[in-house]
Structure formats: C-alpha cells, structure tokens
C-alpha cells in the first residue's frame, strides 16, 4: 500500500476515533492530543500495518495503548518517592484524605433538583428510586403503568438537564 493510499484510508477511519478518544480522556483538548498522537504513530509505523486486516481495529489499539502509556507516564511523573529508610510514597492515594466537600455540594444540588420536580413526576421517581417496581407504583398511585414509566422518564430527563454540570465528573 502506498503512503497516499494509506493516508486516504486513515482519513476515512479517523473520524470514528474521536468519540473513543473522548471516552478515554473525558476532555476535549486531551482527546484531540490523543487523536493526533495516534495518527502520528500510525503514519510512522505504517510499514507494520498488514494490508487487508482491519485498519480501524489497528488504530483503536494504537489509541488505547497510547492512552495507557501516557497515563502511566503521568502517574510515574507525579509520584515522589522518599529516599529515607521507610520509603514512603508522598502522594499515594492511601495517604490522602477526602473532606467530602464535593460530594456534599453534589448531594445538595441533587436534593434541590429533585425538590424542584413537579409532584406528579417526583412521587413516582422517588418511589422507583427507593426500590418500588413499576407495577407497585402504578397500584399505589392508582395510575396506569405506562404513565408511571413516562413520569419517571420525564423526571430523569429534567434532573439530567438541571444537573448537567456533573455529567463528566468522577
């Protein structure tokens, strides 16, 4: 396969790599960097690609391996080792504490968003959240099961819209 043909095939497949990069990095700029690194490695190593095999799978593998390598490099770079006799890992997860402030803010926002729901949607949603089955909610509220499903769906959609800022948080 000539370099021109390879470039053409890569161009056709590269659009499908962007969502995968976003899934891995969860950041637009990092996803663009990962995509660029992947394509650079593919072009650099095009002689290792076997013609007739799945180009898309080959690119996905390169992207996944590049992401893992970059992640491991970042972890190593951010880990300081104390050279004393005890050899403590200064920034290891085991030695850090979380003050739960973020989760407190999140729970306050969630409770506020649920409180803003219309009672027609909030009641079935909260019953479902507490473990009731659709048919149990329908019987208790004396409404059709389809209405229960619809109201829970609408409640979820409203909550998703109100809590959009937590969509990609860890």
Automatic annotation (TrEMBL):
Keywords: Sigma factor, Transcription, Transcription regulation
Single GO BP term: DNA-templated transcription initiation
Residue ranges of domain RNA polymerase sigma-70 region in the record: 16-73
Tagged with keyword Nucleotide-binding: no
InterPro entries: RNA_pol_sigma-70-like, RNA_pol_sigma-70_dom, RNA_pol_sigma70_r2, RNA_pol_sigma70_r4_t2, RNA_pol_sigma_r2, RNA_pol_sigma_r3/r4-like, WH-like_DNA-bd_sf
Entry GO MF terms: DNA binding; sigma factor activity
Superkingdom: Bacteria
Residues forming coiled coils: none
Domain RNA polymerase sigma factor 70 region 4 type: 110-159
Matches recorded under Pfam families: Sigma70_r2, Sigma70_r4_2
Record's signal peptide: none
CDD domains assigned to the protein according to its UniProt record, in alphabetical order: Sigma70_r4 (cd06171)
TM helices/strands, residue ranges: none
SUPFAM superfamilies: Sigma2 domain of RNA polymerase sigma factors, Sigma3 and sigma4 domains of RNA polymerase sigma factors
NCBIfam families registered for this protein in UniProt: sigma70-ECF
Family according to the record: Belongs to the sigma-70 factor family. ECF subfamily.
Protein name: RNA polymerase sigma-70 factor (ECF subfamily)
